Amino acid sequence: MKVNASSLGSYAFCPRSVYLSDYLGIAPSNEAELAEGLIGHGIRKELFLRQRSLLGKVGDAAELEVLLRSELVDISCKAASVYSKRFPGIDLKLFVSAACSEVSEDITALMERLQYMLSDMDLDKALRNITPVEVDYYVSSDTLGLTGLIDLVYGGKNSYPVELKTCTPSDTIWEGDKLQVCAYSMLLEESLGLKTIPHGFVEYTRIRERRPVVNMEKLREKVLGVRDCVLDILGGTTPDICPHGSGRKCSSCGLTDKCYEI
Ligand code: SF4
Questions:
Q1: Is the separation of the CB atoms in 164 and 210 below 8 Å?
Q2: 3-25+133-238 is classed CATH 3.90.320.10
Q3: To which H or E segment does residue 36 belong?
Q4: Taking the CB of the first residue and of the last residue of the chain, which one, N or C, has fewer CB atoms within 10 A?
Q5: What does residue 247 show for φ and ψ, rounded to 5 degrees?
Q6: Residues 6+ apart with CB under 8 A from 23
Q7: Contact 179/226 with Cβ under 8 angstroms?
Q8: Where are the domains positioned within the chain?
Q9: CB–CB of 197/189 below 8 Å?
Q10: CA 179 to CA 234: how far, in whole Å?
């Protein structure tokens, strides 16, 4: 059995959430919040995919901006119907509109970055630097006992993973996000035959900030240790309610209702 790297992040939040979601298959009750996150995530990834397909087809930065904004309009027109089957009964238009206005600001920031890079390199090279080589890249390893879907992969020989997070960021990097990104780096090393990937990134989309996760040996060991704990849970070990003790996490957890009943 292989552990999904995203479950490592859930485990860091609360081991019992892994038991409820991944073992018992219980979905969180805060569907609207889930829809908001998935839509923000999905729209960004779709635009990255389309950005990648524009490589080699644009003559200058201004043309790229026009094309990206036009693609975003197209994505926003289709987004509500794409997600309506998954979230029947929830009005998704507001979420789509909020996500698209955030992504529109992302395009502005991307263009500023591109202009800055153009003082050092030509358009083609700059575009390749700011465009992921893979979007939703599936990775799986028998050796590591892990699997996952990496949001974005950048670089060639110096590849690294980027995990998009639409949640409220902390001052640093959530422990679960560190574990997930490190696991992705380990999976990517094996998948691409690279000796080592020294770091990956978590991108907190609300503040448009990419924070580095350094793949230190201790963190790699922790990934494998948490993987084993998740395997125990998937084997039927039941973690206690509120193993963290304070109840603070439970108050913000979408599984509270079911969790306290079981
Ligand atoms: S309600 Fe509390 S104990 Fe239950 S899964 Fe959520 S955080 Fe964990």
A1: no
A2: yes
A3: helix 31-53
A4: N
A5: 80, -10
A6: 233, 234, 236
A7: yes
A8: 3-25+133-238, 31-129
A9: yes
A10: 18
pLDDT tens across 130-188, in order? 999 999 999 999 999 999 999 999 987 789 999 999 877 788 888 999 999 999 999 99
- Ligand 1 pocket mutation, candidates 7, 10, 14, criterion most atoms within 8 A of CB: 14
- Tell me if 141 sits within 8 A of 160, measured CB to CB: no
Q: Token digits for 141?
A: 């390893």
Nearest Cα to Cα of residue 75 among 36, 42, 52, 111: 42
Atom 4, ligand 1: residue with shortest CA distance: 259
Amino acid residing at 62: A
| CA separation for the pair 21, 239 (Å, rounded) | 13
pTM of the model: 0.91
Q: Which two tokens stand for residue 243?
A: 């193993």
Return the bridge partners of 153, or none: 134, 161
CA nearest ligand 1 atom 1, residue: 256
Query: 3-class DSSP state for residue 165?
Result: strand
pLDDT in tens, 51-109: 999 888 888 889 999 999 999 999 999 988 888 888 888 888 999 999 999 999 999 99
Contacts with 114 (C-beta within 8 Å, 6 or more apart), sequence order: 61, 64, 126, 127, 130
For ligand 1, atom 5, the nearest C-alpha belongs to 17
**Could you identify the atom of ligand 1 that is nearest to the CA of residue 239?**
3
Question: Which tokens hold the place of 112?
Answer: 């500023």
Atom of ligand 1 nearest to the CA of 14: 8
